[in-house]
Amino acid sequence: MTVPYTEFQHHYPPRTANKVPYNSSVYKMWKRLPDAIGQFKMDGTNTQVVVHPDRHIELFTRHKLLHTEKLDPVSNFTLPDVLQARILDFTPKDTFTVYNAELLHHKTKMVKNTLYFFDVLVWDGQHMLGVPYGERHKIIWEILDGKRLPLHENMIDGQLAVAHNILVKDWDTAWEDAKKSQYCEGLVLKRFGSTSGLQLGLSEKNNGSFMVKVRKPKKNYVS
């Protein structure tokens, strides 16, 4: 059940510390879950994209405002005007909306000025508490028209993309694709049914029980 969201409050976004090896017993167990999907995990900085009712946009890491906190390693990043305009084009007016994305700019030479969206925490003034991940992801999939980030481009600059859901039958193929990419860390396995409802993010370690990371054993991307 959503609740009205009328003033900005920082909440920790969904995050998991759980990491499992590819093809492990836990990985195989996830393959048997009826509501499991996979997504590519890109090498970036987890970033909340906050659109205020007056249409200005702020970017937050899990803890800090990107462009004002000097201690933040990405404090000097400014979202290009063209991307701000594109975000405002598909975001409801006169209310708060908060997206969760990966900012791909500082951690790899291959991708710059790019936001890789995978969740929406507040939509059109409604905090999406209790809403399953599948429903939240559907919103950004539709507004971004399924725009995927390619894995093997020599250079990507100034894009908005959305994480696409990979069916269980395609996980092993996706894993092989991830291993070849210089800016993909592996996979994130997620559930999209009733167990994945958004919780109030009061601490960094909650809100991530519906997902698990499958990281490549060795970095082969450019940092």
Plain-language structure description:
It is globular and about 50 Å long. The chain has 223 residues and is an alpha+beta fold. The N and C termini lie far apart (41 Å). The strands form 3 sheets. Strands 1, 3, 4, 5, 7, 8 and 10 form a 7-stranded mixed sheet that branches. The protein has a 3-stranded antiparallel sheet with strand order 2-11-12. 17% of the residues lie in helices and 27% in strands. The chain has one domain (3-215): DNA ligase/mRNA capping enzyme (D-amino Acid Aminotransferase, Chain A, domain 1). The model has no long low-confidence stretch (mean pLDDT 91).
Describe the structure using short key phrases.
4 helices; D-amino Acid Aminotransferase, Chain A, domain 1; 223 residues; seven-stranded mixed beta sheet
Give the helices and strands, then pairings:
Elements: E1 3-4, H1 25-31, E2 36-42, E3 45-51, E4 57-60, H2 81-90, E5 97-104, E6 111-112, E7 114-123, E8 126-127, H3 133-143, E9 156-157, E10 160-162, H4 171-180, E11 184-191, E12 211-215
Parallel strand pairs: 6-9, 7-10
Antiparallel strand pairs: 1-8, 2-11, 3-4, 3-5, 5-7, 7-8, 11-12
Brief summary of the model shown:
By secondary structure, the protein is of the alpha+beta class.
How many extended strands? 12
The ordered string of helix (H) and strand (E) elements is EHEEEHEEEEHEEHEE
Largest sheet: 7 strands, mixed
In the CATH hierarchy, the third-tier topology is known as D-amino Acid Aminotransferase, Chain A, domain 1
How much is the radius of gyration in Å?
17 Å
Distance between the ends: 41 Å
- Tally of individual domains: 1
